[in-house]
Design goal:
Mean pLDDT: 76
CATH class of the largest domain: Mainly Alpha
Number of helices: 8
CATH superfamily of the largest domain: ABC transporter type 1, transmembrane domain
Strand content: 5-15%
CATH topology of the largest domain: ABC transporter transmembrane region fold
Distance between the termini: 37 Å
Strand order of the largest sheet: 3-2-4-5
Largest sheet: 4 strands, antiparallel
CATH architecture of the largest domain: Up-down Bundle
Helix content: 55-70%
Number of domains: 2
């Protein structure tokens, strides 16, 4: 339950308590069915009316409590989503500037992955709690009526649990692959959009379209594979669930014939409760599968990263020295900057010239933060840059300036 703050924890406990009351109402309503049916068979009108009114009141209570639980869940998910996006912002726009940022991954983290975690991880934490409480209440009541009936329900529940569990590792793998392809496709679309003018000027815009189409086909193939595997798991679950309910009806009817169950109304109650709560057993496993499938996303992509840097602001700038500086991006084999050396003394005027993509902008950014360099060091006034913050005396202005929305005064 990572990323839960005090408010979410409070909501979680209130949700759990109300879920317990909701399930108790449903079980009591199901028990009232036995009185409705038996009183109808005995033609006892007063007992029939009382049991019918009680059942209606209990089901309304169950539905209202479920609705309140949904409101609490949605409120908690909103808080969690905001916290996740805050983590992404802090991890991306941190003091220790990263040259190797992936804008596609950043966009995917803030949109797709946050929504995935809301629906497939954090929501499932609440729902598995509701399912477990439902199972405890339901099975406890079945045991009160007939321990043999409980044994039958437990056997069916075990079958419902086994099938999704077998599929959990496969589903986790395809989810990770699909997320990786989403990151790469978003980066491809962004790069293609930014390259539009260059390609248009060379009359090569078809290459951009082909790149998008190729990336889209790869992405959709992985997404469809993920959905197909998850759907197949749901199919196996449904087959066992519905076939099991038929088998339970047969078993309860046999118990009535054998004298283990005393009334037809009890058969109806047992059938309703066992069917619904065996379903909750399967739902709890599916929720657990969702949690397991996305636990690595929470652990890796939304990990709190602390800068832990305490740099000394530069008061004067007498010299800048670059020694054996090397840099390359993770997805490139060749170095953008290789074995670069440069010494700049105060009052020097230096022109750095090179063709587009040669590494001029990258070099200037490395002067601000040499931690991004693959190898080499940057010295400010003869001291390693890793101990200094030169931003108070220096500024970098790129050729493409993008500011957030708003007026210059507010920015």
């Amino acid at each position: 339950m990572k990323k839960f703050n005090k408010t979410v924890w409070f909501n979680y406990f209130i949700y759990s308590f109300l879920s317990l009351l909701s399930n108790a109402c449903y079980v009591a309503m199901s028990y009232a069915f036995s009185f409705i049916i038996d009183s109808a068979i005995d033609k006892n009108l007063n007992k029939f009316l009382i049991a019918s009114g009680t059942a209606c009141g209990l089901i309304l209570g169950h539905l209202i409590l479920d609705y309140i639980c949904d409101l609490i869940l949605n409120s908690s998910l909103a808080i969690i989503n905001n916290n996740l996006r805050k983590i992404v912002a802090y991890n991306t726009f941190k003091e220790n500037y990263e040259l190797k940022l992936d804008s596609g991954e950043f966009i995917n983290l803030n949109s797709n992955k946050v929504n995935q975690l809301a629906n497939s991880y954090y929501k499932n934490i609440f729902e598995i709690t509701n399912c477990c409480l439902a199972i405890i209440v339901g099975f406890g009541f079945i045991a009160y009526i007939s321990w043999i009936s409980l044994l039958s329900c437990i056997i069916l529940s075990i079958l419902i649990i086994i099938v999704p569990s077998i599929m959990s590792k496969t589903s986790q793998k395809v989810v990770n692959i699909a997320n990786d392809k989403n990151d790469k496709f978003l980066q491809t679309t962004k790069d293609s959009f930014n390259s539009y003018w260059v390609y248009w000027s060379m009359n090569e815009t078809k290459q951009l379209i082909e790149k998008i189409n190729t990336g889209s086909k790869i992405l959709e193939a992985k997404n469809r594979k993920k959905e197909n595997i998850l759907n197949f798991s749901n199919l196996l679950f449904s087959v066992i669930l519905f076939l099991g309910q038929v088998i339970l009806i047969i078993l309860f009817s046999w118990m009535y014939l054998a004298g283990f169950i005393k009334s037809i109304g009890t058969i109806t109650t047992l059938n309703i409760i066992s069917g619904v709560y065996c379903f909750f057993g399967g739902s709890s496993v599916r929720s657990l599968m969702g949690i397991l499938s996305y636990k690595n996303v929470v652990k890796i992509d939304f990990k709190d990263i602390k800068d832990n840097i305490n740099l000394v602001a530069v008061q004067k700038l007498d010299s800048i020295e670059l020694k054996n500086l090397n840099f390359k991006y993770d997805d490139h084999d060749n170095h953008v900057i290789k074995d670069f050396n440069l010494s700049i003394i105060k009052n020097d005027k230096v022109l750095i010239q090179g063709e587009s993509g040669a590494g001029k902008s990258t070099l200037l950014k490395l002067i601000f933060n040499s931690n991004n360099a693959s190898q080499g060091q940057v010295f400010i006034n003869g001291v390693n840059l890793k101990e200094y913050d030169i931003r108070p005396l220096c500024a970098y202005i790129g050729q493409d300036i993008v500011l957030t929305k708003g007026t210059i005064l507010k920015i």
